[in-house]
Every structure is written in C-alpha cells, then in structure tokens.
Known about the structure:
- The protein is of the alpha/beta class and 191 residues long.
- It has four helices and seven strands, in the order βββααββββαα.
- It has a single domain (6-175), classed as archaeoglobus fulgidus dsm 4304 fold (2-Layer Sandwich), CATH 3.30.2170.
- The chain has a seven-stranded mixed beta sheet with strand order 3-2-1-4-5-7-6, sandwiched between helices.
- Strand 6 and strand 7 (142-147) form a beta hairpin.
Amino acid sequence: MSASGSKSVPSVGFLTVQEFTDLGLIGGYLILNAVGRPLEFHCTAPVRPNRAQEILYGPTLAPFLYGEQIGQTLVAKGKSRPMFVCTNVEPVLSAREFVSVPFVLLTDGGSGANNQRRLDGAHAATPAPKSRALVPFQLAGSQAAVAEEHARDREKIVEQWQPHAEAMDLLEPFSRLREAIEEAQRGAART
C-alpha cells in the first residue's frame, strides 16, 4: 500500500513484532500521515530461530531478530521517511542502530508485559534478553522511552510531534497494525 507524493507529508512509522506459536515472529510496519491515514504497510515473512541460533546468540537473540532482522528490514522497505518510528516491543529499539530515523518505545503505562516479549519456545537454558537502558518521558499523554545511547532522539521526537499532538493517539495504530498482520497471515494461508 503506498500513496503518491507521500514523501513530503509529515508521517510517523509504527513497527511491531508479533509471535505466532505455529509460525514464529512476524513484523509489521505501518506509516501514517500526521492525522492517522495510512501511507504504507509492510509485513515480513515469518522468522523462527533454530536451536543453534538460540544457543549461540543467547541474550542477544531477541534484539538481533526484532531489531536487526525484522525492524531494519521493514524500515528499509518504506518509501516514506517518517519523522520517527514508534514501537510497542522493546527489542525493536535495536533497529535504531541501523537506521537514521529516531525510534521511540510507547507503552500504555501498565505492567509493560506487552513490551517484554520472549521468543515462543525459548528453552530455559537460553537467558532472557537483558533490557536496555532507557530514557523515559511523556509523549502526547503516553509513556515513552528511547534507548539511552540515542537519548538525543527524545528532543527530536517531542519537537517534531508537538504540532501534531492533538491529531492522533499514538497507541491506537498498534491495534490496526496487529489486525493487518493477522489479516495478511490469513490471506497467505488461503493461497
């Protein structure tokens, strides 16, 4: 899905990774204009680490899969360059190391269980991913954070979003993104 002339429109990216027990990890990337209309949608094929990768990557497996393999790939597919990319899954922040677009983790302020996903089927011998150091802040009424090594992104994100803050709830697009990923998988299963 793409809109002509979308490169000049202020936009925000939304990137998430969902776990499917029978398929593995599937990433989705939705780019919306500043009022919430879709400009682009991209989805990955399922990614499933094998046991050797689980052992060899250890605690670096989740950041590698979520950020480097899935996140970086999806952002590279985008034709539009968003002001910043929002995620609701903490390991996706690792993609920031490979792209020039700021990344921000958004949470609903709850327990954070939605943000600390483990790989389905991970073995007990594989250590849980170590959480990265985060710089928390508020963004348009949502709990937000950037990776400490990219703390300057916070000011850029707040400044860029300020003129658009009333136009869109930054958490809402994640439900659209989740449903679009599920629909894409249903469509793939039918073919």
